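FAQ

Q: What does a record look like?
A: Structure on top, sequence underneath. For example:
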């Protein structure tokens, strides 16, 4: 899309006008920094066999689950978070991939706030911290990556965390299996102030 800026010059003898092209929207400055960080530091974490194997296994177990069952799982998870009865979250946090992600988060010295990986339906496979929900399939992180078949990194708008006051953004990208088939997504919350 192209927009045109109208610049008029009024002179004593008449009116002159010119149109100059201008950009519709500029990418926020943090986006290129986050994209580079994800390419260099984050993608290698999620390309490890331990991650891909866990996603593939969950796709096999839950690949035929109905949308209604997905919503029941998500509502159960959310309810457990609200009541403090964290059965699903504890089970997820204790799996080997979650422990791997948590160790990578800890090694980031505060740059990585959260990491999680989903299957091809958007259900969490592993997570470094407790997430607010179990199903990501209705969110932009999923809809703008695997749902579109896009290999681009989706970087969400930055927001200041209410508790830490750090400026944060989420970056998400599709994960492919060894054969190149899309199998899930990875999402990482990054403290922009720490980059």
């Amino acid at each position: 899309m192209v927009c045109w800026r109208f610049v008029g010059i009024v002179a004593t003898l008449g009116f002159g006008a010119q149109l100059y092209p201008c950009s519709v929207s500029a990418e926020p400055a943090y986006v290129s920094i986050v994209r580079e960080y994800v390419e260099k530091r984050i993608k290698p974490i999620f390309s490890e066999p331990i991650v891909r194997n866990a996603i593939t296994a969950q796709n096999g177990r839950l690949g035929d689950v109905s949308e209604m069952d997905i919503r029941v799982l998500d509502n159960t998870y959310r309810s457990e978070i609200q009541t403090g009865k964290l059965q699903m979250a504890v089970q997820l946090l204790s799996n080997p991939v979650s422990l791997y992600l948590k160790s990578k988060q800890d090694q980031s010295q505060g740059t990585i706030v959260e990491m999680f990986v989903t299957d091809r339906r958007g259900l969490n496979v592993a997570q470094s911290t407790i997430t607010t929900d179990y199903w990501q399939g209705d969110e932009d992180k999923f809809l703008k990556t695997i749902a579109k078949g896009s290999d681009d990194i989706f970087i969400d708008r930055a927001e200041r965390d209410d508790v830490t006051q750090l400026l944060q953004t989420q970056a998400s990208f599709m994960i492919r299996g060894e054969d190149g088939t899309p199998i899930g997504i990875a999402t990482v919350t990054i403290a922009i102030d720490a980059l």
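Q: Is there anything notable about this one?
A: The two ends are 32 Å apart (CA to CA).
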